[in-house]
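User:
Hi there, any thoughts?
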Amino acid sequence: MTVTTTRKITFEEYLTYDDGTDKRYDFNDGELIEVTPATAFHNALMMFFSFVLQLEIRQKSYPYCVRVNSTELLISKRTRRPDVLVMTLDQSQGLGNQPDMLYEPCLLAIEIVSLTCRTVDTVEKREEYAQFGIPEYWIVDFLLGTFSVLILVNGNYVEKVYRENDQIISNVFPKLSLSMNQVMADR
């Protein structure tokens, strides 16, 4: 849903925009796009991935950190807020006390497919994340029962689809042991 303002706003205005509500917006070339609140199930999955990846980071001493549905990416003239993203510690420290916005690719973006945003999560973001240069992108689709890992090769994603007990293979987390069944357990 696009929110109409009396005029298009600048990106700088977006960074401090507050309409007095709890609504969240993406920025799209001067327009505000209202972001639908996540369901409880969606939130539980974001927290699951955060926990699993933070544990892996700690155990393997990777210089990474995890953000859940907070850090935005400025891709061309629009922003996107992945459900979960992994960035380097340098990127995190570089944010300091600035808006939680990356102007360069993170290491990994994860999208949990929403019924209301299927095309956005699986088509639009795939193109935008590739254009932005995010080296790895996961799409978790419960309707199809698939866990897709997309690796950026020469500007395009090469996709590997995993199901049930298939152990996913990740370039960012090469020793991670995770399957779709583990993601679905207890949800």
Remarks:
- The CA atoms of residues 67 and 85 lie 5 Å apart.
- The chain has a mean pLDDT of 88.
- The radius of gyration is 17 Å.
